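Human:
Focus on the backbone:
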Amino acid sequence: MVYLLLSLFLSLSVFAQEAQEPRLRFLDVFTKIPETGKDTLQTSFSKEAIPGWLAVLGSTAVLYEYDEKLYSYSQKKGRDWHIGNRDNTKPILQAYGHELVRLPTDTGSALYFLGDGWLHFSIAASVYGYGHFTDSSYDANTGIMLMHGMVVSTLFNQTLKRSFGRESPEVKTQERGAWRPFPSFNAYNNRTANYDAMPSGHVMTATMTFTILAERYPAYKVPIYSVGGVWASALMFEMMNNGVHWASDYPLGIAMGWVIGRASTRMISRAGKDKIESTDWNFLPMINGTSGIIASRNF
């Protein structure tokens, strides 16, 4: 299923209507982080965001009330459907004692892999590669936006996780998991599952990817969001099934993925504004009976 859905995404760029726009640089994946971060914060704390915050807080509160029941139900269904309750992704690449790449080995781990950064990076790199080799600035820019969104969402996600410090279900020491805000750097790295449940980074990344694709290929918005809904639902179920997340970890992850995805697609409008506002000086030699330099400036 993973590879079928990946093929669907890679075909979008082939059938998308070409649009002319300034070409983003690959380095913009990193250099535009402050601008997108500022855009994300401004959107999140604007008056227009109040209804969204109410929805996120309300749904989180309701799900938190039923977290234990939803967790137990998901694990029971995992056993009933012979998926199991364990994450069976296996490391295939390691360096200096750290696992760099993990791949699925069964149905359960394949569902969990739907939120994995390597899968979403593969989608982004494929869209960028298609645009680069076919000289399509629109598709290349879309790939850059996807990579950029992954970086920005990771920064926000890590900040939020370390701020909340919520236990994952698999290591819970009390009902619905203990909350230990702002753990030390070493504590978080050595016992990550004790602190990183809220919010879900996998859901944030998946939501961000689908949001950018839907915004960039509006003619396919309905099928993109339809596939995205199934994709995210399968992912959220599996992460409760394998004890990685509580149901109440998801609303904030979804909201942040959507906001960051939208902010990432505005890289183009910000780049265009920067281009219009640029006032570069040009210096030319002057030879007209005397020597000198003519200085001109573009406004």
User: Anything to note?
Assistant: The beta strands are 90-95, 98-103, 281-287, 291-297. Residues 274-299 have pLDDT under 50 and may be disordered.
